[in-house]
Amino acid sequence: MEQFDISKADDDEYVLEMVKKDGKNLDLVSERLKDDKKIVMEAIKQNPVSLEFASKRLKNDKEVVTASVEKVGWTACYASDVLRADKELFLAGTKVDGQILYYASKELRDDEDVVLQAVTNKGLILKYASNRLRRNKQIVLSAISQDKRAKEYISSEELKQDADVQAILNPPKEEGK
């Protein structure tokens, strides 16, 4: 891997070529270029985790953040507070990584669509759903179907005893086995 020449950290063409080779080179570039959407998008294309090094302004740019989150969901941790409440962005992220719910706003943790998709992808993330949705049968069934350990986060004793829930947690044994 070619070594980044720090003396060229503010050279547009050089930086663009270097982030195309390794998106994490964005960490080494000038503040001006960390705020250059074209350069940041190239860095994210090469390595979605490079969103970490983008400017604060670009961490509030939905197109930039979506480019990262739809490939590596947990990078939502770098998004602005405004975007952490963006349902469309989080639905895109939960398709690849249910863990993203951890970084969602309080409102999105109480959104049935977002939570259902998140727990379908990662059952244990039920822990970060709102208390109301941890009592929602459809969401609970999806979560425990994905990971039985999610039963720990069901917030209704009644639902824990529900026949459908119990059928997933304690499936009947086949005779002769």
**Span between termini:** 56 Å
Order of helices and strands: HHHHHHHHH
Q: Specify the structural class.
A: mainly alpha
| Oligomeric state of shown chains | single chain
Fraction of helical residues: 40-55%
Number of helices: 9
Give a quick set of tags describing it.
9 helices
Question: Care to describe what's here?
Answer:
The chain is an all-alpha fold and 177 residues long. The protein has helices at residues 12-21, 31-34, 37-46, 62-69, 87-94, 112-121, 137-146, 157-161, 163-169. The protein has a domain at 87-172. It contains nine helices and no strands.
Task: Give the structure's gist in a few sentences.
The chain is mainly α and 177 residues long. It has helices at residues 12-21, 31-34, 37-46, 62-69, 87-94, 112-121, 137-146, 157-161, 163-169.
Tell me the layout of helices and strands.
Layout: H1 12-21, H2 31-34, H3 37-46, H4 62-69, H5 87-94, H6 112-121, H7 137-146, H8 157-161, H9 163-169
Helix pairs in contact: 1-3, 4-5, 5-6, 6-7, 7-9
